[in-house]
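Protein Entry — a single chain follows
Fields — amino acid sequence, C-alpha cells
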Amino acid sequence: MINVILNDIIDIISGGTPKTSVDEYWKDGTVGWLSVNDFNNDNRFVYNSEKKITKLGVEKSNTKYLDKGDIIISARGTVGALAQIGNPMCFNQSCFGIRGKKNIVDTDFLYYSLKNYVRNIIKRSQGSVFNTINLASFKLMELKIPKSISYQKQIAKILSDLDAKIEVNNKINQELEALAKTLYDYWFVQFDFPDANGKPYKSSGGKMVYNEVLKREIPEGWGVTTLSNWIEHDKSGDWGKEEEQGNYTEKVSCIRGADLNGLNGKGEVKAPERFILKKNAHKILEIGDFIVEISGGSPTQSTGRMAFITAETLHRFENPLICSNFCKAVTLKEVHALYNFAYLWNKIYDAGVLFGWEGKTSGIKNLLFESFVTNYEVEKPSEEVMKLFYEKAKPIHAQIQKNLQQNQKLAELRDWLLPMLMNGQVTVSEAKEELGMVAEAGAAYERDKEAIDSLFDKINYDYEVGVVVLLTRQILDRTYGKKYVHKMLSNIQFLEELPVFKDLAFKENGWGMHSKVLDKTIANQKYVYFEDLGNERSVLNFNFKHIKEVSIWMQKDDYSKDFVLKVENMLKIYQKSLINKDMDRIELFNTVLECMAVLETDDFEAVRRKMGSWKMHEEGYATKEDKFTPYETQLMIDFIKDL
C-alpha cells in the first residue's frame, strides 16, 4: 500500500446550472442533470436524474458531461454522497465529478476507496455531516491504495460482486412487484379473475352490473363498502426515548414515514432504535399490519404512503417494530384481505385522491384518516376471489422480503470488508474465502427469474395476441414469428401506452424487447397456431375457427376498442416506406424506441452507445450497433421524432 494525495491521482470535473429564467435551457430537456437528491442513497450507480436540461442548456452553462463509470460526489448541503455514473449525464455545481487517472488508479477501486474515506470522516465527526468540499479539499485528502493497478482491480471486483448481487436482487424484486401488480390489475381492474371454470371472468362473458354508487360496472356478486369496514382497529405511533431510562425499557425499532419506501424495498430503512414503555407494548407491529403516514408529505406528494408487515418483513429486524407518531398502524379484520387492501390503497394514493383528504396543523399536512376510511367508497370483491389473490400474492411478497433481507446481509458484509481491504487488514484471497457463499450474480438472476415465472400461470393476453396476428394478416397481408408480437406490444407501450401493458415487464433480449408473461401466452396458442415453414422456421397464424369470439372481444368494451385502435395505428407505421413491413426494420424501430425511452433522449451518440451495449444472439452480430449502421439509426431517430 502507498499513501497518495487524492488530487494527484484524479481529474476533477466541475458542474453548473443553466439559467432557470431561460425556458430553452429546460423545456423538453433530454440531458440528465444530476443533483444530490438523485444519488443520496446506498446504490453504487445512478442511472437517471429527476431534472433534465436541453443540449443548448449544456452549451450555455458551466455544466459538463460525466462518462459512464465516472464518480460524482456531493460537495454542499448533504456532503459526501457518492455514486458512479450509469449513463452519461451532466450535474450541478453543488457536486464534483471525479475521474481516475489512467495507469495510476482504477476508477471502480477509487469509488470504494472514497466511500471508505467519507465514512471515516463522518465517523470522526460523530455522525454529523462535514460542512463542504471545495477544490482545495482534494489536496488535503490522503488515501492508501495498492501500487498495483491489477491488485486495485481485484479489490474492486470483490466489492463489485457484492453490489452486483444486491442489484440483481433489486431487479428480481422489480419484476416480482411488476408481475404482482399485473395480476392485481388483471383481476380487479379488468375483472378477469378466474371464473368457476378457471377462465377470465369478464373476457369470458361474466355478468357485469352497473353500480349507482361507483357509477360504473362491477362483477355480479361484488358489493360496495368503505375502507373502515375492512379495518379491525388501529394503533397510534410512539417515539419513546433515545436511551433506556425509568419505565422506558422495551427496545424497539421505530418506522418513520421516511422508512416506508425502504420497508417496501424501494430505498433504505434507517429505523432508529428507541425505548418505549412496557404498557405500550400493544403498539408493537404484527404480521398483517399496515403502516400509513398520516403527517408530512409535500406540495407534490400527498400524505398516506403505506407499507405492510409480513413474517418475512419482521425477519429483517433484530428488534420488534413500532411506527412513529407521524404514522398510524392498522389491523384488518380478515388476513386474506391483506393484499387487496394494499393494492387498492396504493391505487388510490397513486391517483392523487388523498390530496383531497388533507388538513393542516402548524403548517404540517395531516391525512384526515378517519374521515377518509369512513366515507370513501370502493368495490368489495367476493371473499373467494380475495382469498385466491391472497394465496397468489403471498409467496411473491415473501420472496421480495427475503431478497431484501439477503441484501442487508450482503451490504453488511461489503461494509465490513471495505475498510479491511482498504487498510490491508484483509487480503484479496482471504476476502474470496469470505465470499464463498455469494452466488454468481448472473446465474442467480436467471435461476430466480425461472422461479418468478412459475408464480404467474394464470396471467395471459390471449385475446391481445389473437388480435395482433389477425389484424396483421388482414392489413399487412403478412405473417410473422412470435418475436413480432413482442415487438408490437412493446412498441405500443413505448409510443401510446395502454395501462395494462405498463406492468408486462418487457426486458431487452438479443433480438428485441421480450416479456415472459407474453411468451407464455403465445405458447398457449388459444387463438393462434404455429405454421411450420420448414427448415426449422415457423410463423404465427390466426386460428379462424375462433374468429367470432375474437371479433366480439374487439368491440366488447373501451379497453378492447382502444387496443384495436392502437394495433391499427402501429400497423400504419409499419406500412410507411422506411419500415415497409420488413422485420429487420421493425426490429430497428423497436431497438431505437427502447433506447430513446430508457435514455429519455433522442441524442444520436447516446442512442448508439446504448445500442453498443445491447448484446445480440444473432449470427454475425455481437451488438445492435453492429447490426444497424449509424445512417440507419439516424434515419430511425428522425422517423420516430416525426410520429
About this structure: The first helix runs from residue 6 to 9. Residues 439-443, 451-458, 498-503 have pLDDT under 50 and may be disordered.
